[in-house]
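User: I'm curious whether this sequence folds into something compact or stays loose and floppy. Could you predict its structure so I can see for myself?
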Amino acid sequence: MFRKYDQKQQFLLPLNLEDFVPENHIARVLNDIIDVVDINAIESTYSNEGCPAYHPRPLLKILLYGYLIGIRSSRKLQQMTQTDTAFMYLAAMQKPDFHTICRFRSTHLNPIKEIFSQVVTFCKEMDMIGSSISIDGTKIKANASSRQSKSSDAIEKEIDRILKESIETDKYEDEIYGDSTPYQIPEELVDKKKRLEKIKNAKKKLDKENLKKVNITDNDARIMKHKDGSKKPSYNCQIAVDEKKQIIVAADVVNEENDLHQIEPMIQNVKNTMGYKPTIVLADAGYFSYENLEFLQEEGIDAYIPDNFYKVEKEGKTRKFRKSLFKYDKEKDCYYCPAAFEIPFTRIQKRKGEPDLRYYVCNYCSLCVLKNACTESEKRTITRDPREHLLESMRAKLNTEEGTEQYQKRMSTVEPVFGQMKQDRGFREFLLRGKRKTGIEFVMMCTVHNIKKIADFIKREGKNLKDVLKMIVGGGSKGWNKGGIQARIANTLC
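Assistant: Here's the prediction. I'll summarize afterward.
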């Protein structure tokens, strides 16, 4: 005996949208959070004139839920509002077209950043955030072909070619229509003009920033090397992740391949989002520089950042005696080699924008039985930066039991976050183009990551999210109390 079913059955009572999704569904968590965030910044961009627009709150829910489950295409999102019950629930049965979804996403960078900050503040109020962060970056491919990255000469040739083809098209048009005007510009001519505009913009970018190459499709993207060895037009996505619950407390998109200059802006980003600076910062060797160590020291932040040769030297993988085996005598301003020979100061090398580099040359290499293990040159030379005491202090700290334990936390804190983005949500390539719009995408991806962490936390703690949010905001979705979270968010965002 089977249960009866009828796809044409009629309901006498109206359906409740709440019945569309299970009680513990992640869509409910996202819905409850977005219901209480302050979206005045988004609402203020709408005009009161003309036809009523779709409310930004369900549009925001649709977009964020799409990013949460790995759906970013605006056309696909439109389709899901018609076929998927979770999307129907979040959209309140409304069906915005893909143009509306796409336009909403690409025009609200700053407000979406504010929403990210508010979600971080929710996490903070739930005691999900500590005081130790790990900073890391990953390369995400731009929505552009490598073949479209061109040099200045190649761009100029392309401009000449398009102009020549456009002239020929104009001549052909004159032969057909004479002095009369066609109702429509030929499609091939329109395409050429669009292409020409893109190329000219790319040429301006290349000349202004003194670049070797620039991508025609996405002028802001840069050719970057990925972990698999491939080189693609990409962006460098930076995150700061709190150790306690893997909450992303800061996020940014840059088009600089190297991570070297990202410490200071990321710490400032954390301060803007959290309202305070972290006490402990962990980062890999890509972030090591004397300038970064000095900055963190001035900020009173306890940093754990190895230099580029720390791991290699520690594991003894160098072919010759590593520099760390040479002992520096500050009073005598000399080094002592592993054979106990003195290596005196010899000369200074002037450097533009950097402190002078000091050279120390050994005069006893020809007499040393360890020479073959030390150097292939006639004499072993050691260089010293005046700030090298920072490196030595960092190495000494990392070699302690506490230092080793602290730095090991980095891998388990920040790297799984990128793994979840790429593996679980398919975030391996940007959908949008340009640094500003890719910034929107990445912030949304970080926002849904934090929402997922809130969902896991609420489930694990057995709490009711609506009650928690109501307590935090002091009035729920109906309003924010003056001494509550709204004021704190406003302070961190100004």
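Summary: The first helix runs from residue 26 to 36. Confidence is low (pLDDT under 50) at residues 169-190, 475-485, 487-494.
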